[in-house]
Specification:
By secondary structure, the protein is α/β, with parallel strands linked by helices. A hairpin with a 2-residue loop joins strand 3 and strand 4.
Length: 244
């Protein structure tokens, strides 16, 4: 059984469609014996999402609540066929980590776009660190090629627990193929809850079951070790001229 030390894809009330405060989230994280949490609020293009000024306010964000270390991130949407992101590089440099994703509420491109090329172009941005819910069948991509690019760019593939229950129906088999491809190519995975309510924090059993079913190596799950997790977070921060 994998021991996960931190959850890096969590939404608070700041995202506009989530239901808990940062303190409530931290309290649950402590109850579940996590060491780290990451707030990854949606960008300003998501209906109800925060204004750009939110991402300028990192200095007011708590670095620690009780025994939980906090990181200030964003879930950044791809907006169109040109791979336009809904946060500019000035904002992306100020956060601690960037997660890239597609959402139907935001993506304005053609429905039958070449999502592989669009995503890979977005991955060329240095401030993108994690690829979210890649198995979403709504946005089909060439998994081996995307994983290859993620390995090349030192980016991490997310296995998102919410994709197997609340959202993105039909993701399970796709995510299994993705995890097998990451295992084959020697890439890294992060397991997340994508929590929108505090009690969901640290809830990734379905994702862990998937990884166990293919005997995915623990050494390639970045949040299955505190040392490994801090090493990756340091790499994300060094890109931005900072460190833990």
């Amino acid at each position: 059984m994998y021991q996960i030390v931190g959850d890096l894809h969590i939404h608070s009330i700041v995202s506009g469609h989530a239901f808990s405060t940062i303190r409530e989230i931290a309290m649950v994280a402590q109850q579940k014996n996590l060491q780290y949490i990451g707030l990854a609020e949606h960008g300003p293009s998501m209906p109800g999402g925060p204004a750009p000024i939110y991402f300028e306010a990192r200095g007011h964000f708590p670095k620690k609540i009780d025994n939980i270390e906090l990181f200030f991130g964003a879930e950044i949407d791809i907006l169109d066929e040109n791979s336009t992101l809904d946060l500019d590089n000035q904002s992306l440099k100020k956060i601690d980590f960037g997660i890239v994703s597609f959402h139907p509420q935001v993506y304005r491109g053609e429905i039958r776009s070449d999502y592989t090329s669009i995503l890979i172009k977005a991955l060329e941005n240095t401030y993108i660190n994690i690829i979210a819910h890649l198995g979403n069948p709504r946005y089909p991509v060439n998994y081996p090629l995307v994983v290859e690019k993620a390995v090349e760019f030192n980016q991490v593939i997310e296995i998102n627990n919410s994709s197997f229950g609340v959202s993105r129906k039909g993701s399970l088999e796709n995510c299994k193929m993705i995890a097998q491809e990451v295992k084959k190519q020697g890439g890294y995975i992060i397991v997340t809850s994508d929590a929108h309510y505090s009690e969901e924090v640290g809830d990734y059993q379905l994702a862990l079951n998937l990884l166990e079913s293919i005997d995915f190596p623990e050494d390639y799950i970045i949040n299955a070790s505190s040392i490994r997790f801090r090493s990756f977070m340091n790499s994300f921060l060094k890109i931005r001229g900072r460190e833990i």
